[in-house]
Write a structure and sequence with these properties.
- This protein is an alpha+beta fold.
- The chain has 13 helices and 16 strands.
- Strands 6-7-12-13-10-9-8 form a seven-stranded antiparallel beta sheet. Strands 1, 2, 3, 4, 5 and 11 form a six-stranded antiparallel beta sheet that branches.
- Helix 12 runs antiparallel to helix 13.
- It is globular, with a radius of gyration of 24 Å.
């Protein structure tokens, strides 16, 4: 069947459709215009399948580029699932809603296909770690979509399609390839990837990884066990801390690779971090609403928070800068039957790609995980009616930190565990301030969680 001219998609309809996608990351912004930038047909069908790059423009003058994987069937077929529009006698829809359309992807990996479009080339690349998928592999959706879309192939592999595209190699591909080639055991190893190169940009469209069967999401596990056996979860955290320590050591293990070689922090970079956090604190406390009772423990304490940061920054310095996870929390882990698995190495999707690739202290990852424990304790109560025992968060933190400090290469941290913990406090403070701004804007009922974190950091004795 002839593929229609997808550049003729109705822009208003396309914008409405994008806003309805869970993975569309710009819902908080007004979209002033959407249009198709490029189309690469993968299969003429039926159903036909194409990769489409779409630009969303915003009134601020900024823009974002999103990847669509679209299926096309004859309009008389009456296809309705995730329908976008009708063009040239064909119904256009999200191909992931149609197993027959999505099945084109494993076949292209089997073929090692290189597809030339009018303006770009799409390549389906495969590594050496795994057998290629069967050409008739079964395809099923994998859970709820977040910022990307994932499908499972034959219950052995997972394809993750990146929805928001930026020029350059996606950090997830880069990190997974590095860790897979070095045999790091606590990841879903990289099997293959899809690359796009052309006039628009060179970018990573997606990755294929090993499917981890029988894994339990770390966040859901925490909420479950807080209600049933909270001390069992505390005990598990020593091993998770050890895994993260070994992961950071592995990421810093190749001094010959410029993208991964550890670097010494400069005084300028340390000062910039502190100044950036200080500015965030100042802006946040100026804007704090005066009528929110949940803010009482930190109300009018902005200067105190900034003074604490200034004191800490003079004590907590040193260590090395490395590539790290960048968005580490319990929801990025799986407890498989035989080990912990760390997932989602692309960093925070809202941050620019270059920023996500930047080397930083590994303790930023640790701070993210510690804040996740605080959220788990509160979420268990808010969502499940389960109250964590007194001191549960502190015991969980210490179990994790014991495992971490016992397994990370000490040269990556400031000398001495006390100094490392001081630098960690700075990153926790940064994280809690970010959380407070987010919750004030999005989940007012959760404001008390970052407030408690900031208040606790203020009460901790200085080293």
């Amino acid at each position: 069947m002839a593929t229609p001219d997808l550049t003729a998609l109705d822009e208003e309809r396309l914008g409405e459709w994008l806003l309805g996608r869970r993975w569309f990351g710009s819902k908080a912004e007004d979209v002033s215009q959407t249009h198709v930038l490029d189309v690469v047909t993968l299969d003429d069908g039926p159903p036909a399948v194409a990769i489409v790059a779409v630009e969303a423009r915003f009134p601020t003058g900024t823009h974002a580029i999103y990847q669509l994987l679209l299926g096309m069937r004859a309009a008389d077929d009456g296809w309705t699932a995730d329908r976008l529009d009708d063009v040239g006698g064909l119904t256009v829809y999200d191909a992931f809603a149609d197993p027959q359309a999505a099945a084109v992807i494993p076949r292209l990996f089997v073929e090692g296909a290189t597809i030339e479009g009018e303006h770009a080339t799409v390549e389906f690349r495969w590594g050496d770690e795994f057998d290629r998928p069967r050409p008739d592999a079964t395809v099923r959706a994998m859970g709820a979509e977040q910022s990307n879309s994932s499908v499972v192939l034959d219950d052995t592999l997972v394809l993750k399609l990146f929805r928001r595209l930026e020029a350059g190699e996606n950090p997830e591909l880069e990190m997974l390839r590095f860790l897979t080639s070095r045999g790091f055991p606590n990841i879903a190893e990289l099997a293959g990837w899809i690359s796009y190169s052309g006039e628009l940009m060179d970018a990573t469209l997606g990755v294929v990884q090993r499917f981890v069967a029988g894994g339990r999401d770390g966040w859901e596990l925490a909420l479950d066990e807080i209600g049933t056996d909270p001390e069992a979860f505390v005990a598990r955290m020593a091993e998770l801390g050890a895994v993260i320590g070994r992961m950071h050591t592995a990421l810093a293990s190749d001094g010959s690779d410029p993208a991964f070689a550890p670097e010494e922090p400069s005084q300028e970079s340390t000062s910039l971090i502190t100044a950036t956090i200080d500015e965030q604190i100042e802006r946040l406390f100026v804007d704090l609403p005066s009528d929110n009772e949940a803010l009482a423990p930190i109300a009018h304490r902005g200067e105190e928070v900034r003074d604490r940061l200034s004191l800490l920054s003079h004590i907590g310095s040193g260590g090395r800068l490395i590539r790290h996870h960048g968005d580490l929390h319990l929801g990025q882990t799986l407890l498989a039957p035989d080990r912990w698995i760390v997932l989602d190495f692309e960093g925070e999707p809202a941050r620019p790609l270059l920023e996500r690739r930047r080397k930083r202290s590994p303790l930023r990852d640790v701070a993210g995980m510690l804040r996740s424990f605080a959220y788990a304790a509160s979420a268990a109560e808010l969502q499940r009616g389960a109250t964590a025992p007194e001191g549960w968060e502190e015991r969980t933190r210490e179990a994790f930190l014991t495992g971490y400090f016992g397994n990370v290469d000490p040269s990556l941290l400031p000398p001495g565990e006390a100094n490392a913990r001081t630098l960690l406090t700075i990153f926790e403070l940064e994280k809690a301030v970010y959380e407070l701004r987010y919750e004030l804007n999005n989940r007012p009922d959760w404001v008390r969680i970052p407030v408690a974190g900031i208040a606790r950091l203020l009460e901790e004795p200085l080293p």
